[in-house]
Amino acid sequence: MALVFISKDPNTDGANCPTAWVDVERQEIVFQGWKVSGETRADCLTTGPIPDSEEVVRLPVRMVAAIREACDVAERSAVQ
User: Fold this and answer.
1) What is the CB-side half-sphere exposure of residue 21 using CA atoms within 13 A?
2) CB 7, CB 65: distance < 8 Å
3) CB 32 within 8 A of CB 26
4) What pLDDT digit, counting tens, does each position of 34-47 carry?
5) What mean pLDDT is predicted for residues 55-76?
């Protein structure tokens, strides 16, 4: 699996921060973010369980441009 790096959170020191990639081969968008817990996790669980193989992550709004870029890269790769 070769991930195409999109961007890290522009307002962090570049280490241990939210990041976006695209896996062109699998046609998936991959995000690293902060795990949710407490009230946020409880709110998420109101719509259904979160399987052990999945996680809910939080990304800052300042990552919207990176998320859009990841979506564009993923969409272009699906067309090829």
Assistant:
1) 13
2) yes
3) no
4) 999 999 999 999 99
5) 93
- Contact assessment for residue 22 and residue 2, using Cβ atoms and an 8 Å cutoff: no
> Which residue pairs, CB below 8 angstroms and at least 24 apart, start in 6-13?
6/66, 6/69, 6/70, 6/73, 7/63, 7/65, 7/66, 7/69, 9/59, 9/60, 9/62, 9/63, 10/62, 11/60, 11/62
Q: Which two tokens stand for residue 7?
A: 């961007």
Residue-wise pLDDT for 49-59, tens only, equals: 999 999 999 99
pTM here is: 0.83
